[in-house]
Write a structure and sequence with these properties.
Shape: rod-shaped
Number of helices: 2
Distance between the termini: 60 Å
Largest sheet: none
Number of strands: 0
Structural class: mainly alpha
Number of domains: 1
Order of helices and strands: HH
Strand content: under 5%
Length: 99
C-alpha cells in the first residue's frame, strides 16, 4: 500500500469490513427473516452513505493537494528563473572584469 493514498484504502477497507461484520451479525441474530432482511437493507444504505462521504472527502482532499502542489511548482519556477537571471548577471560581470 502506498503512503500517498492518505489513508483512503484503510477507510474504504474499514467500511467494507464493518458492512460484512454487520451482515454476519444480523444473519446469526435470532430474528425473523423479513426483519433481518430489512435490517440488512437499512445498514447497507447507511454504509453506502458513509462510503459516499468518504469518497467525497477524498475528492476534496485530492483537489486541495493538487492546488497546493501547483502553487509550489509556480513558486519553484519563479525562484529558478530569478536565480538563473542573477547567475547570468554575475557571469556577465565576471566576464567584463576578465577582459
Amino acid at each position: 500500500m502506498s503512503d500517498k493514498d492518505g489513508g483512503t484504502s484503510f477507510g474504504i477497507g474499514f467500511i467494507v469490513g464493518a458492512a460484512i461484520g454487520l451482515a454476519i451479525g444480523f444473519l446469526y441474530a435470532p430474528r425473523p427473516g423479513e426483519e433481518t432482511r430489512e435490517l440488512l437493507k437499512e445498514k447497507a444504505e447507511e454504509v453506502k452513505g458513509r462510503a459516499e462521504e468518504v469518497i467525497e472527502k477524498v475528492k476534496e482532499t485530492t483537489a486541495e493537494t493538487k492546488e497546493k502542489a501547483q502553487e509550489v511548482i509556480e513558486k519553484v519556477k519563479e525562484t529558478t528563473a530569478e536565480t538563473k537571471e542573477k547567475a547570468q548577471e554575475k557571469l556577465k560581470a565576471v566576464k567584463g572584469k576578465t577582459k
